[in-house]
Amino acid sequence: MSNTCANCADAQVKAQKLDEIVAKYKDTRGALIPVLHEAQEVYGYLPLEVQRVIAEKLNIPLAEVYGVVSFYTQFSIYPKGQYQINVCMGTACYVKGANEVLDKFRTRLSIDVGECTEDGKFSLEACRCIGACGLAPVVTINDEVYGKLTADDVDGILDDYEAR
Amino acid sequence: MIKNAKELTTLRDHARQSMEIRLDRLVDPSPEKHKIDILVCGVAGCASSGSLKVADAIEEQIKANGLGEEVKVIKTGCFGLCAEGPIMMVCPEHVMYTKVTPEDVAEIFEEHIKGGNVVKRLLAGENEYEEIKDRLPQIPFFSMQKRIALNNCGIIDPENIDEYIALDGYQALAKVLNEYEPDDVIDEIKKSGLRGRGGGGFPTGRKWESSAVVQDHEKYVICNADEGDPGAFMDRSILEGDPHSVIEAMIINGYAVGSHQGYIYVRAEYPVAVQRLNVAIKQAKEYGFLGKNILGKGFDFDLEVRLGAGAFVCGEGSALMTSIEGKRGEPRPKPPRSAEKGLWKKPTVLNNVETYANIPQIIRNGADWFKGIGTEGSKGTKVFALGGKINNIGLVVVPMGTTLREIIYDIGGGIPGGKAFKAAQTGGPSGGCLPADCLDTPIDYDSLTKLGSMMGSGGLIVMDEDTCMVDLARFFLDFTVDESCGKCPPCRIGTKRMHEILVRITEGKGEPEDLDKLEVLAKNIKASALCGLGQSAPNPVLSTMKYFRDEYMAHVVDKKCPAGVCKSMVKFIIDTDVCRNCGICKKNCPTGAISGDKNTPFVIDQDKCVKCGVCMEKCPFKSIYKNA
Lengths: 164, 628
Known about the structure:
The complex is a heterodimer of chains A (164) and B (628).
Chain A: H1 6-24, H2 32-43, H3 48-58, H4 62-71, E1 83-88, H5 91-95, H6 98-109, E2 122-127, E3 139-141, E4 144-146, H7 153-162
Parallel strand pairs in A: 1-2
Antiparallel strand pairs in A: 1-3, 3-4
Helix pairs in contact in A: 1-2, 2-3, 3-4
Chain B: H1 5-17, H2 20-23, E1 36-41, H3 44-48, H4 51-64, E2 71-76, E3 88-91, E4 95-97, H5 105-114, H6 140-143, H7 161-166, H8 171-179, H9 182-192, H10 204-212, E5 220-225, H11 234-241, H12 243-257, E6 261-266, H13 271-286, E7 302-307, H14 317-324, E8 348-352, H15 353-365, H16 367-371, E9 381-388, E10 394-399, H17 404-411, E11 421-426, E12 432-435, H18 445-450, E13 459-464, H19 469-483, H20 489-506, H21 512-528, H22 532-536, H23 539-547, H24 549-556, E14 571-574, H25 584-588, E15 594-595, E16 603-604, H26 614-618, E17 624-627
Parallel strand pairs in B: 1-2, 5-6, 5-8, 6-7, 9-13
Antiparallel strand pairs in B: 1-3, 3-4, 9-10, 11-12, 11-13, 14-17, 15-16
Helix pairs in contact in B: 8-12, 8-15, 9-10, 9-12, 11-12, 11-13, 12-15, 19-20, 19-23, 20-21, 21-23, 23-24
């Protein structure tokens, strides 16, 4: 294995994990969605090659796999940023000014919703209600939750992440 | 493994002892045996605002003070007062502290735990109480509530099945398996008058019956935990704070209809709920409440968690089932109903989380007890998620028939900043907006439908004068257009057209005829869409047009947005009488729309202005105002 590059080794590890996931759900009815969830955890997103492997192994037409992937917003066919920013656009957050917060993220990062910054550091999503309405408006960055935000808080938060 | 009802009762009595100080508010803490339970909300809003760090700090203090024997910290479910989080409560006194930070913990230990004095500055409410005893019921937020669902939240540790058992958990299951025939269970639920808490309000007993009568050895029971209505988070709180109540109810449901397999379909946006459920299911299996020969009565039942993947339409029953099958979550036409052909074309019963959370208590306390609460057509209590422009944001449980005014002003503490109430939105994207005239209507399923809204899952978003109702209708249509699955044209194309019209109106390009077009489209979509999502999608538009017609007219005729929300209709104007010609606005304007100097008055060029509002914000003399 000494002449294997780091990338190929990484790809092999991931492929093996994917095998394990599919094996785990082999006998489960309706396995496709759980498999896609776990595959996305491994790869970070669901590129076509991964969908093809899943389709073959679960014996489901690729078109159907793609149909499911494109139907659900949780599945992404594009890579996401190192820090995934989700601005909650539930009603409680909207009424309390989530829109201005989202606009601020847009202008500061110069990306639109669904996009990723060029350096791959941040991606921006407007997400569905995350049920933290007591803290509205709410933004999550990876697993961190920021509540009761105003547009003015955005710069401070992003400065903090950019320094990391 | 618990083999029978007797063993369960023995375990309950034993487990109860260690919870005594949490349950009895009047237990006198004797000085020599001072045992203290500190309850910290470890879910939802509180967890997001840092309650777990508070719990860690308490653990540290316990260690530092060598109080490992006397003081216990328990991470519980939701207390309900989410905006005041992190929340903790010290028992047996039941003193509730709000907005607690890890830095406050040392003081709480010094003053309260060791000194016996309440830390007044952290009390819920504003130092309303002097006495230590019995303080919880004095806060109107709590005293006006009646908790059935959420009953255990904030008391038990949701990851400890013994604590659920201590509070009579799984007793309903034991009662059903030992004393009831399946038909008796259905009769009891029918008699209770319980209706589905997820939206439509279909009678739960009848739903169970229609599946029970179908002869098939393969049947399914599903819990709909795809809580998609924005602004509703009661299901999340129940799953995170009291997961066993749902599991117990599903086993009872399985017994009643003759099903041996259940699924809980949870949104992927709720990772903590998923984790809690998995822990709870594992414990229930270890104790023998799930699996073969439950409590020695020969009944088998198993349970599996399935994750959603971010599609609002999957909250619709038939779409949810196709999603469990691993397909695109599209609804299908009815008949056949799910009771006959549901999941994998087998008879299926589907109930919402909150509906299930009521079941064990109905069985334990009897249908008559439940029937005694609520109104003629809607029995029991309902959880509402209060949100938006309201002081006490959080979860409240009230008897059906409570008025909006009681919920918003007495329990919710009114609207912040002394602003005027404008509307309450119920039922999420399928519901409607109720104006101030409706504040005194007792709310139940039927009264809300009559008013052009619906109960939905119980989200209740309060809006003040700063909300534009046309913009809000557009916001909801944004949502439905985005979430329409695309299967039926009325929803796919119709909501899109409605959305386009609303965008036009909010941009100041609307015409009076647009309102008629909206109405025609809305009625057609309601009549012809395939599923509940499509049929109810026009509700936010219809109800706002019904109650706030003036506001629509102001947009289309006068091209004005009275609330000052729709940007293209807002004008920023400098009041030259107040202006001191300082030039700060000019300096800060990003588009150079402001002209003027010491000698010429400052004015805003409306063509260049992008309505960002920076000038208004920066003006030290408040001379700039929004002309709506």
